[in-house]
């Protein structure tokens, strides 16, 4: 109950931040770009605004729409994705808790409950995997495109102050998406591995002491031998423990390539 309340408070806090941050970024952007005529022309499709109040309004509304779509919306989708995975983690936690509890009094019932919970876990995981495959791929695409665009733009020698707001927001959005997905998605195979390890210990402990449950022990042994399931983004990227180091390595490698191309061009 305490963990549920804590999760709810963190979710509400993150939702508030998702709606407040675009307003703050748009305000800073409008303040820094209020003297730049090109920005107003870009927002109004070339239409000139001479009144300072209308110019300030246009300088705020257009950046707000940009930050709401390119910062707020991806973070909101990331939050809902992580919450779905977190709710699925409750099933894994229940199975792990049941496996680790010592039920020497009624072992047949314990085996049946474990097998039923594991079957339910596999069904829920297939639904979760099918539902999140495309969203995970799109979120990772947004993340890497943001970070690569920041790497490319950062090589320019002169960057306007209001464009720095855009670059910083893109960097923060990419990092939040990358680390959030890595933490929650990679947690699933780790929890399943712990369950399989606990099942192996349970089998070793009781397979010779309970002759009537030979069939149940055999089924538990089959469950233990199954491959560890993991989430994937359209079957292209698998969320395993090595995902985050690989992603950081890819960003570092392409950053060096972009830097070398910039140096050769200059």
Describe the structure.
- Helices cover 81% and strands 2% of the residues.
- With 266 residues, the protein is mainly alpha-helical.
- It has one domain (70-264): Methane Monooxygenase Hydroxylase, Chain G, domain 1 (Up-down Bundle).
- Strands 1-2 form a two-stranded antiparallel ribbon.
- A hairpin with a 3-residue loop joins strand 1 and strand 2 (237-238).
- Helix 1 (2-32) packs antiparallel against helix 3, helix 4 packs parallel to helix 6 (214-225) and helix 5 packs antiparallel against helix 6 (214-225).
- The longest helix has 49 residues, at 52-100.
User: How many H/I helices?
Assistant: 7
Beta content comes to under 5%
Cα gyration radius (Å)? 25 Å
Order of the strands making up the biggest sheet? 1-2
Q: What is the number of E strands?
A: 2
What structural class should be given to the helix and strand makeup? mainly alpha
Rounded mean pLDDT score: 78
Biggest sheet overview: 2 strands, antiparallel
The percent range for helix content is over 70%
Order of helices and strands: HHHHHHEEH
Low-confidence stretches: none
CATH class: Mainly Alpha
CATH architecture: Up-down Bundle
Whole-number total of structural domains: 1
Shape: elongated
What is the CATH third-level topology name? Methane Monooxygenase Hydroxylase, Chain G, domain 1
Distance between the termini: 60 Å
Keywords: Cell membrane, Membrane, Transmembrane, Transmembrane helix
InterPro entries: 7TM_chemorcpt (IPR013604)
Transmembrane segments: 12-32, 67-88, 134-157, 163-186
Subcellular location: Cell membrane
């Amino acid at each position: 109950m305490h963990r549920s309340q804590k999760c709810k408070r963190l979710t509400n806090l993150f939702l508030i931040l998702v709606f407040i941050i675009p307003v703050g970024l748009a305000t800073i952007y409008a303040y820094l770009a209020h003297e730049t005529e090109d920005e107003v022309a870009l927002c109004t499709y070339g239409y000139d605004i001479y009144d300072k109040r209308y110019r300030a309004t246009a300088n705020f509304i257009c950046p707000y729409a940009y930050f709401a779509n390119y910062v707020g919306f991806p973070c909101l989708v990331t939050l809902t994705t992580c919450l779905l995975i977190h709710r699925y983690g409750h099933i894994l936690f229940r199975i792990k808790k049941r496996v680790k509890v010592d039920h020497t009094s009624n072992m047949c019932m314990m085996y049946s409950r474990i097998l039923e919970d594991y079957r339910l876990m596999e069904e829920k995981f297939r639904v979760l995997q099918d539902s999140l495959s495309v969203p995970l791929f799109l979120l990772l695409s947004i993340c890497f495109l943001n970070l690569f665009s920041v790497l490319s733009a950062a090589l320019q020698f002169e960057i306007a102050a209001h464009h720095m707001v855009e670059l910083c927001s893109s960097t923060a959005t990419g990092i939040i998406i990358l680390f959030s997905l890595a933490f929650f998605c990679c947690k699933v195979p780790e929890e399943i591995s712990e369950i399989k390890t606990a099942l192996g210990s349970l089998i070793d402990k009781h397979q010779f002491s309970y002759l009537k449950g030979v069939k149940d022990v055999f089924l538990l042994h089959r469950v233990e031998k199954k491959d560890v399931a993991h989430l994937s983004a359209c079957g292209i990227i698998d969320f395993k423990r090595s995902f985050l180091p690989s992603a950081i390595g890819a960003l570092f490698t392409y950053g060096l390539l972009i830097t070398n191309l910039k140096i050769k061009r200059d």
